[in-house]
Amino acid sequence: MNLSPFQPEFRVAALYRFCRLDDHGSLRSPLAAFCCGQGIKGTLLLASEGINGTVAGRPEAISALIERLEAIPQLSGLDVKYSSAREMPFHRMKVRLKREIVTMGVDGIDPTASAGTHVEPSGWNALIADPDTVVIDTRNDYEVRLGTFAGAVDPQTRSFRDFPAWATEHREELTGRKVAMFCTGGIRCEKATAYVKSLGVDQVFHLKGGILKYLEDVPEGESLWRGECFVFDERVAVTHGLAEGEAELCRACRMPITPEERKSPKFREGISCERCHDLRTDEDRARYAERQRQVERAEALGLPMPIGG
């Protein structure tokens, strides 16, 4: 784990495992009680296909949670990426039951049986530098906008549910090529590569541990990553060494915005940004303004934030 110069208050764990978890419903209440008792916040998703989530807490609390999860036979062998945060990056703890732990919406895709070949971060640069390799960013458009690998294809999806249609449409362009796919932490690619293989594409690879592991392991001077990596918590984005980035969230549309975009005349803290300003009514902006006043008051008094997270 790459430690930042500051003394981190919280450890963040992004975790997942695809496995057969028929009794996932019975795990919800005990896990929620354990996390709340340990002061852990974030989200865990449970489905018959496994577990997925990102949580944060004191280092000893996160270690205790991972130990507890690893003790469940089906979950042993979790894929976990750790990083640090100066402040708690979540507002509450949620344990949810889902149909899928990452929603693609296609039946019959089993990453445990047919995912692409894992490529360690140390071997990723050579793979994507090969001119015969098609590099595909499987994340959504707003994530890609903040950063991606040099030369990567952006499918411009607004939801992971859109990816199968895009892949099917471009199947002929992928057939006979090496296809290298990546995502934030690795979980989305488990399904994306399995789907692309189901289309008859044979040489399919994906970045093990995702962008987060690459940014942790690969020195910035050797990196082919450009920009910041969006993360689904209050840090908004991270960069090389998993240091917190400069992007922030527009509280009106929940989309990431860069320091340059904050200079737009349509940007107002907590109320609007250039992307959503013209899509909202005056009534919407008045409501957001009142919420922003409540946020600023809570910050001044040290109270819990009156916003989701």
Automatic annotation (TrEMBL):
Transmembrane portions of the chain: none
Catalytic activity: uridine(34) in tRNA + AH2 + O2 = 5-hydroxyuridine(34) in tRNA + A + H2O
EC number from the UniProt entry: 1.14.-.-
One Pfam family recorded for the sequence: Rhodanese
BP GO annotations: tRNA modification
InterPro entries, sorted: Rhodanese-like_dom, Rhodanese-like_dom_sf, TrhO, TRHO_N
Molecular function in Gene Ontology: oxidoreductase activity, acting on paired donors, with incorporation or reduction of molecular oxygen
Keywords, comma-separated and alphabetical: Oxidoreductase, tRNA processing
Family matches, as SUPFAM superfamilies: Rhodanese/Cell cycle control phosphatase
Location of the Rhodanese domain: 129-223
Superkingdom of this protein's organism: Bacteria
Family: Belongs to the TrhO family.
Record NCBIfam families: PRK00142.1-4
Annotated function: Catalyzes oxygen-dependent 5-hydroxyuridine (ho5U) modification at position 34 in tRNAs.
HAMAP family according to UniProt: TrhO
Listed name of the protein: tRNA uridine(34) hydroxylase
Natural source organism: Kumtagia ephedrae
